[in-house]
Amino acid sequence: MTTIKRTIRRAELKKLVPLSDTTIYRMELEGKFPSRFALTPRCVVWDYEEVQTWLRGRKAECNPAEQKPDVRKRKVRPVCSDMGGAMKRRFRLEAGLDTGITLDIDTDKITQDVAEQINGFWMGAKHVLNASDGDVIQAVARRAAGCLLMYLMNGYHGVGSVRELSEQEGWPPYDEIGITVVDFDIPSMEADEFDVREEVV
What we know:
201 residues; alpha+beta; four-stranded antiparallel sheet
């Protein structure tokens, strides 16, 4: 039996491996990342040495000379996807506190005109457009991000959160909304994950 010398919890793991929770979970299921195990029903950990071995393996496999940028992951410039030739733009939106979401927006569905209608539906349209450097598609991503993260925190999966969004006033119906949740990070709210400091009152 292999002796485990040290374990790490989620917060320390994310410092070592800056991938989203969903990416790590998916890789675990695929056998491509060290598996977590439970110390208690509410506390999971990873074997530190297994994680270090995985990192060393990734570094050894990395050959910068062979790497080419994946243009499908550009944040703002549209490229043709592999899904039926649809034009999509990908945005990563982060709100701090380990909270963020990556969205694909199908610009065949969310055209400039549709995006202007969506952004203009709410107050503060000019402010959001200015924050997006005049890019109305990015403004739609900003509008969608907060609502989608709220649904995700309430237990919805990516598709379900978009479906919920499409049923809200001001958004196109689900088959026309053209928004896909690619990835997301939400903070852990487990009781044993909080850092607690008692203060004098």
